[in-house]
Design a protein that fits this description.
One of its GO terms (biological process) is cell wall pectin biosynthetic process. This protein is an alpha/beta fold. The relative contact order is 0.12.
C-alpha cells in the first residue's frame, strides 16, 4: 500500500520530544491494560494521482513520510471558498480573503453540511500531511460535507490554496508538532471540546475526528442506523464483544471511550454533556480531555435504552450512548496487529492509529512509485520450525526475528551497493510488542500466532527514514512497505520492468546468464559474490525498475571498502529497536541486535544492570 507516515516529521515524535513519548506510553499502557481485562470484568473532485484507496487485504508494516502534494485545479468561477468543490483551488490572481472571513459561524458550517451532518477535524501545520490524507479518503468515498479547523494561519493559508474547506480556530498555535502529553497537546484537546460545544448549538450533527485516523468506508449510513443515539463513540477496546457489525456490548467494554472518532447529535443531552465537559477542562488544566469525557459519560452508565439497539443511558441518565464496534471502527491494534476485521470477515469503516509506533494509512505522490535507481526486493525464506514449531515464547520469537534480520541486513547492503530502494519483506512475529509485561499477546484478543507484524515492532522506522550524515553513516537507503507492488497506484510500466535474479552456487557453469522465462528473463547469479561482481553485472540493468532476488541467503560476500563497511554498520545498527516486555525482570525490554550472529552465545535477555541498558554496540 502507499503508506506515508510522518515518522521523520514527529508523527510519532522522536529524539527531541522523546520524554513526551515516554509519558504518552505510560498513559497508553493503562488503557491497553484496561482493554485486556474488559472481557473478564463484564459478562467531489479528486486529484489526478489520488485516485483510488490502497488495498486493505493486509496491514502493511512500514510507512513513507512524504507530505501529500494535492495538485489542485484552479477555480474558474466566483464560488464561495466554502461551497467550491474540494480540491478546486482558488485562482492565484486573487488575494486570499481576510482572516475574519474564515471565522467559525453557523453560516460557514451550513455551506458544508449535507443531510444535516458535517465531518470535522482540526490541527496545526505540523499535521498538514495527515489532514490532506484525511480529506482525500473522504472525497474518494464521495463525501464532501467536511471542514478543517486550522489552529495556525500557516495551515489555514495552505489548505485554502489547495481547495480544502477550512476555518480559523483562533488558536494562534505553533506550527510545529506539539508532542503527546505536552501542555500544548492538552491545549489542543481543550480546543476540540470548545469546538464541539460551539457547533452543536447550530443544530447540525457533528462527526468529530482526530487527524491521525482515516475513513475507509462511508460511515454515515451506519451512524444513521442509530437515530436515537445522542453520542456514538469509538473506544480503546482490543477484545471483541461482538462478531458482526452491531454496536459493541457496552457492559463488556472496559477500555476507555476514545474521543478520536465520535458522532454527536444536536440534542439537549449532548449539548449539556459538551458544555459540562468544556467547563470541566477549562477549570482544571491538568485533566486530559479523554479522561474528562470518560469520567462524565460513565458517571451514570445504565440501564440499556432498549433490548435491541445496544444503546445505554449515560452521563446524567438522559444521554443515549452507543459504543462503535472496535472491529470495524478500528484502533491501531485491532487493525494492524489483530486484523480483527479480517478474522471476522467484516469491512472496516475507519482506522485510528492508537497504540502503534509508526502506522498510518497515507496516500503518496507519483514519485513514491518511481524511486531514483529503482527498487530491490527478495523472496524471504523462513524454515517451518522457526515459524510454527514449539511454544510461542521469547526464545522462539527472537529466533524467528533474528533469522529475518540477517536476511534484511543482507538486502540492505545490496540495496545500498546498487543504489536501489529496498521493498521490505513481510515481517513475521510470534509475540506482540507492547509497553508493559505481557504473556505474548493481549489476553482476550484474537491475535494470531505467528502473525505479520508492523515493521516498527522490530525496526526503528523513524531512523530508517531519517537523513543521517553520509560522512558517518554512508548513503541513505530508501525503503518501501512489503505490499508496495500490490498497490493499484503502482504504475504498470514499473511492474513490467522487472528482473528476477536466481542465486546459484559459485562456479556453476551457467551463472551470470539470462534465460527467457520472464519479459526481461531471469538472471542466474552466484552466491557470495563480491562488491565488484555486483557492480559489474548489475550496471547493465540500471534502467530496470525492479530487481527481485530469489533469496538473500549468502547473496553478498560483503563490502571490500572497509570504510564503507564501517559506515554501513553504523547506519543499520541504529535501525533496530526493542521488544517489550518480560514480567519477571525490570527493565523488561530486550534489545534486538542487527549483528547478533557475530556474537557467540547471544541470547535474548533484558539488560542485567543499568549500565547494560543501551542499544547493542
Amino acid at each position: 500500500m502507499g503508506w506515508k507516515n510522518a515518522l521523520d516529521k514527529a508523527k510519532p515524535v522522536f529524539a527531541t520530544i522523546y520524554a513526551a513519548v515516554i509519558i504518552g506510553i505510560v498513559f497508553s499502557s493503562l488503557y491497553v491494560i484496561s482493554a485486556i481485562y474488559s472481557g473478564k470484568s463484564a459478562a467531489d473532485s479528486t486529484t489526478s494521482w489520488l485516485s483510488r484507496s490502497p488495498p486493505l487485504e493486509q496491514a502493511p508494516n512500514v510507512s513513507q513520510p512524504e507530505i501529500v502534494q494535492a495538485m489542485s485545479t484552479p477555480s474558474l468561477g466566483p464560488q464561495s471558498m466554502s461551497t467550491r468543490p474540494i480540491w478546486e483551488a482558488p485562482t492565484r490572481t486573487k488575494k486570499m480573503p481576510p482572516l475574519k472571513k474564515f471565522r467559525l459561524s453557523k453560516e460557514l458550517v451550513q455551506q458544508r453540511v449535507k443531510d444535516n451532518v458535517v465531518i470535522v477535524t482540526f490541527g496545526n501545520y505540523a499535521f498538514m500531511d495527515f489532514i490532506l490524507t484525511w480529506v482525500k479518503h473522504l472525497t474518494d468515498l464521495g463525501l464532501s460535507n467536511l471542514l478543517i479547523g486550522a489552529m495556525d494561519t500557516k495551515l489555514l493559508e495552505a489548505l485554502y490554496w489547495k481547495g480544502v474547506p477550512v476555518f480559523d480556530m483562533g488558536s494562534h498555535m505553533s506550527t510545529i508538532d506539539v508532542g503527546w502529553g505536552s501542555p500544548t497537546f492538552h491545549k489542543m484537546g481543550r480546543e476540540k471540546v470548545i469546538l464541539i460545544d460551539s457547533i452543536l448549538p447550530y443544530g447540525f450533527e457533528l462527526l468529530m475526528c482526530d487527524t491521525d485516523m482515516v475513513w475507509l468506508k462511508d460511515p454515515l449510513p451506519y451512524l444513521a442506523r442509530y437515530l436515537e443515539a445522542d453520542v456514538l463513540t469509538s473506544s480503546d477496546q482490543v477484545v471483541p464483544t461482538v462478531t458482526d457489525d452491531r454496536l459493541d456490548i457496552w457492559q463488556q467494554v472496559g477500555a476507555a471511550y476514545n474521543i478520536g472518532i465520535f458522532h454527536w447529535r444536536p440534542t439537549d443531552p449532548a449539548k449539556r454533556l459538551a458544555k459540562e465537559w468544556k467547563d470541566m477542562l477549562l477549570a482544571d488544566e491538568k485533566i486530559w480531555d479523554q479522561n474528562g469525557f470518560n469520567d462524565l459519560v460513565r458517571r451514570q452508565l445504565g440501564p440499556p435504552v432498549d433490548e435491541e439497539s445496544g444503546l445505554v443511558y449515560a452521563f446524567d441518565g438522559s444521554l443515549k450512548l452507543g459504543v462503535l464496534p472496535a472491529s470495524i471502527f478500528c484502533g491501531g491494534h485491532t487493525y494492524f496487529v489483530q486484523a480483527m476485521y479480517q478474522q471476522l470477515r467484516l469491512e472496516p469503516y475507519a482506522v485510528h492509529t492508537t497504540f502503534q509506533y509508526a502506522g498510518m494509512v497515507f496516500y503518496d505522490p507519483p514519485e513514491y512509485y518511481d524511486a531514483p535507481g529503482g527498487f530491490l526486493s527478495f523472496k524471504p525464506s523462513i524454515p517451518k520450525s522457526l515459524l510454527l514449531d514449539g511454544e510461542h515464547n521469547v526464545k522462539s520469537h527472537f529466533s524467528l526475528i533474528n533469522y529475518q534480520i540477517k536476511q534484511i541486513r543482507m538486502a540492505l547492503s545490496i540495496a545500498s551497493l546498487l543504489n536501489r530502494t529496498l521493498v521490505m519483506p513481510p515481517l513475521w512475529c510470534r509475540l506482540d510488542k507492547l509497553w508493559f509485561p505481557h504473556p505474548g499477546v493481549l489476553e482476550g484478543s484474537i491475535t494470531r500466532q505467528p502473525f505479520i507484524c508492523p515493521l516498527d515492532h522490530v525496526f526503528e522506522v523513524n531512523v530508517m527514514l531519517k537523513e543521517l550524515p553520509e560522512e558517518i553513516f554512508g548513503p541513505q537507503i530508501g525503503i518501501r512497505e512489503y505490499s508496495f507492488f500490490d498497490n493499484p497506484l503502482m504504475p504498470k510500466q514499473a511492474k513490467e520492468s522487472w528482473l528476477d535474479v536466481e542465486l546459484c552456487q559459485e562456479g556453476t557453469r551457467d551463472s551470470v546468464a539470462l534465460n527467457t522465462t520472464s519479459p526481461l528473463g531471469a538472471l542466474r547469479f552466484p552466491k557470495r559474490s563480491n562488491e565488484e561482481t555486483f557492480k559489474t553485472v548489475f550496471s547493465s540493468f540500471k534502467d530496470v525498475k525492479v530487481i527481485q532476488f530469489s533469496s538473500m541467503q549468502d547473496a553478498f560476500a560483503g563490502f571490500t571498502n572497509k570504510a564503507r563497511e564501517e559506515k554501513f554498520r553504523n547506519r543499520v545498527k541504529r535501525y533496530i529497536g526493542i521488544w517489550c516486555c518480560v514480567a519477571e525482570h525490570t527493565p523488561g525490554h530486550i534489545y534486538y541486535d542487527m549483528y547478533w550472529d557475530e556474537k557467540p552465545g547471544w541470547i535474548p535477555i533484558p539488560p542485567q544492570t543499568p549500565e547494560d541498558d543501551h542499544p547493542p554496540p
